[in-house]
Amino acid sequence: MSEVYLDNAATTPISDEVLTELTDKYKKLFGNASTLYGLGRQAKAVLEDSRHVIAQSINADDDEIVFTSGGSESDNTAVLRTAEARKALGRHIITTAVEHEAILKPMHYLEKHGFRVTYLPVDENGQISMDDLKDALDDDTILVSIMSVNNEVGSIMPIHEIGELLKVHQAWFHTDAVQAYGLTDIDVKRDHIDLLSTSAHKINGPKMMGFLYRKDGLKFTSFVLGGDQEEKRRAGTENVPGIAGFAAAVKTLTPTEKAKRETRFRGFKQQIVAGLKAHKVDFDVNGSLDTNSSPHVLNLWIKGISTYVMQNNLDLDGYAISGGSACTAGNLEPSHVLIAMYAKDNPRVSESIRVSFGRYTTEADVNGFIETTAKIVERLNKRRAR
């Protein structure tokens, strides 16, 4: 039985373009980019060409891109190093209650070390209120870290409005764009973003590869201490093949391709909603289906059936879906995102699944998911009724 993969918010399969680039560079380009002889200079040239491709994708300058091991390192660097560098200016940080653990855990760490953190609430669509943000800002605020797209329900945060608000405030603005990069239009200059995190494996690129956009002029020490790589901003020999693979993934994401994917993915969401309704499945959507929600994520409350049971039954039938963030997949604790949206005692918290689409998702995959989900729900409901 072949598996139908519908968990692209967790990770994506590597693309042929990326695999070809990785294979080529691993075979031919093993030189250390910090060395001065020919192989090193070749590696350095590929490194800088890749940096340029990636910088252009968010309207950044080349030297504002720092390569990292992925989204978690980029998030940790942005939060922890900003706090350390700016603590003389204040010890207040603002984030949201629905951030990824790569943001929340550093925030909890900082709270134990004398910092004050405000966790903005969200409404039932997973959206923050700009009024809440304005009320939380004070003279002690040194950092605002708000994700671009939520990884569990797909809510799109008002990044441009936040940037406009903060451009006249001392606080630096960081956004975790791991779920947004490659799907939404990102322009760090237009949106007045100071720090931005991404990860290559969310766009059919290699794992353990990401970057941190760091606006020119922002000063803090390297998160990884050692050599002087990345202009002394991130120690460690650069993974040049991985970086080239990341750039190859970025090159496939042309404006035309991104527009096509958005149309396809929004169509898949409507297809699932309509299909489940036609099969009389008792469900609801967590969050929104409108343009304030990312096209690639659909979070469904399957009423009366636990997340664990639904996920396992779909897995047995060959469908890979998630109960929420893949980073907490081994944890039976309820989703902190759904708790923030609906409260802890709401049945949605323990009866919801996440479906997410990617480059290789087909209409047949989606139709199969609808049919299989309907059969599972019918079978489980009959069993309960005995």
UniProtKB/TrEMBL annotation:
Q: Do the record's keywords include Cytoplasm?
A: no
InterPro entries assigned: Aminotrans_V_dom (IPR000192), Cysteine_dSase (IPR016454), PyrdxlP-dep_Trfase (IPR015424), PyrdxlP-dep_Trfase_major (IPR015421), PyrdxlP-dep_Trfase_small (IPR015422)
- List the catalytic activities from the record: (sulfur carrier)-H + L-cysteine = (sulfur carrier)-SH + L-alanine
Which Gene3D superfamilies does the UniProt entry name for this protein? Answer: 1.10.260.50, Aspartate Aminotransferase, domain 1 (3.90.1150.10), Type I PLP-dependent aspartate aminotransferase-like (Major domain) (3.40.640.10)
What residues does the Aminotransferase class V domain cover?
4-367
The protein's UniProt keywords, in alphabetical order, are:
Iron, Iron-sulfur, Lyase, Metal-binding, Pyridoxal phosphate, Transferase
GO molecular function annotation? cysteine desulfurase activity; iron-sulfur cluster binding; metal ion binding; selenocysteine lyase activity
The EC number(s) given in the record are: 2.8.1.7, 4.4.1.16
* Highest taxon of the lineage: Bacteria
Cofactor(s) the protein requires to work = pyridoxal 5'-phosphate
Q: Which family does it belong to?
A: Belongs to the class-V pyridoxal-phosphate-dependent aminotransferase family. NifS/IscS subfamily.
Question: Which NCBIfam families is this protein grouped with?
Answer: PRK02948.1
**Name by which UniProt lists this protein:** Cysteine desulfurase
Q: Which organism is it from?
A: Fructilactobacillus sanfranciscensis (strain TMW 1.1304) (Lactobacillus sanfranciscensis)
